[in-house]
């Protein structure tokens, strides 16, 4: 019924079903739960670890095992129910490559009073927009486009005329390439260590 527990656990549960004495069935069920727990050690960090094991016990028994469970016994109908559909956010994003968070940051900047703090936030937003534009859209960009997009998203309430503070395109792409190489090297290192550990176990 649940293949990852194996055929032996299935046979033990099938045997428990045939026991006529309820007390003996309870003892055998607890012993089987211990075996299942050894096979599912990775679940121990889960808050409802034991509850899951008992639920799996009843599923494997095809709900035929009559024992005293420390948890409510699940019904076949409840487990078969499909989960409710999760509502997908319907809010539109003007420029997909900037993402919703950037738009929210722009809204926050618009709501702030004029001053150094607002100007600092606008510069941070513009830097992010340029970085996102380069990472997900193209390998080159005219800084004026960032100003245009910022003005459009803010509905004309944020206008950047001096763009000299923006990082150079080549510097952003260089940092991106370095990070990509680091991620690739880390993945290769993890894969190599995994293979080495596997080889050690063999010998």
Could you characterize the architecture of this molecule?
This protein has helices at 6-18, 22-39, 49-60, 76-80, 99-111, 116-136, 143-153, 169-202. The chain is mainly alpha-helical and 203 residues long. Helix 1 runs antiparallel to helix 2, helix 2 crosses helix 3 and helix 5 (99-111) runs antiparallel to helix 6 (116-136). The mean pLDDT is 83.
Features:
mainly alpha; 203 residues; 2 domains
Offer a concise description of the structure.
By secondary structure, the chain is an all-alpha fold.
Give the topology, please.
Blueprint (H helix, E strand, L loop, with lengths): L5 H13 L3 H18 L9 H12 L15 H5 L18 H13 L4 H21 L6 H11 L15 H34 L1
* Rg, nearest Å: 29 Å
Tally of DSSP β-strands: 0
The figure for the number of domains is 2
Distance between the termini: 35 Å
Give the helix/strand class. Answer: mainly alpha
Uncertain stretches of 5 or more adjacent residues: none
Number of helices: 8
Order of helices and strands: HHHHHHHH
The description of the largest β-sheet is: none
Mean pLDDT: 83
Helix content: 55-70%
Q: DSSP strand (E) fraction?
A: under 5%
Q: What overall geometry do the principal axes of the alpha carbons give?
A: elongated
